[in-house]
Amino acid sequence: MELAEWKGHTMDELITPRMTIDNYTTRKAITIDDIGVGPVVVISWGGGVIQSLARELGAQPSEHWLYVDRQPFFTCKYEGKRFSLAQLPVGAPGTIMIMEELIACGARCFIGLGWAGSLQPDAPIGTLLIPTSCISEEGTSLHYLNRDVSPAPDTSLVELLEESAQAEGLKVVKGPLWTTDAPYRELRTKVSRYREQGVLGVDMETSAMYALGLYRAVRVCNLLVVSDELGVEWVEAFGTERLQQATNRAQQVISRFLRSEQLSQPPNS
Prior knowledge:
The chain is an alpha/beta fold. The chain contains 9 helices and 10 strands.
């Protein structure tokens, strides 16, 4: 089934993101503009990343954000462009729910800065990854795409992120990513099979984000830092200076990306 046919088959939602936003703004006696969502949104699942980017770029918290007490949200102008920074819940369902609401508020481009476990020996801890296709083993994307449609990023964003990394003197590795809802069911046999297939790594959000992007016709691409290695044994670097430095480098890529003059391009159709 083609994407257009799949959209037509499923455009009968009982509850829409816009309904949620309209109910919220009515209760608060505010407008959607008061929430302050920019057309470009950088999202992450680590509060430290969002707080750090907010300080660097002079972003201010939005007092009217729906999840103000739970999920930090900032907005500002940078290099003449208006954009937002949002910390989202770990995992596909919460991430996609809030991205839907951000789209209803005017977001049209999403860049995710997150982490992934590496399946490849030549992509050790600290490597920067850009997923260009996905193996979806989370439950959210199937509500947006037929199984015949593979979740994929906006190709222009892939190019811009890679160019931004190169301008910072950094290399990124591009390729397929495995997304799962069950990190404690990453079986040795499955890891081995996906490694042989050339899959770069595994995370919990990317395939659903790419599926949403295709379905809602918004631009989405993720930049992921390898935080752990899934080889014969599990090797992790959570909470280490090594991983923090790699994350800082990824933030530099995002900062340079935000200065790009090409961010105003329309999404892929």
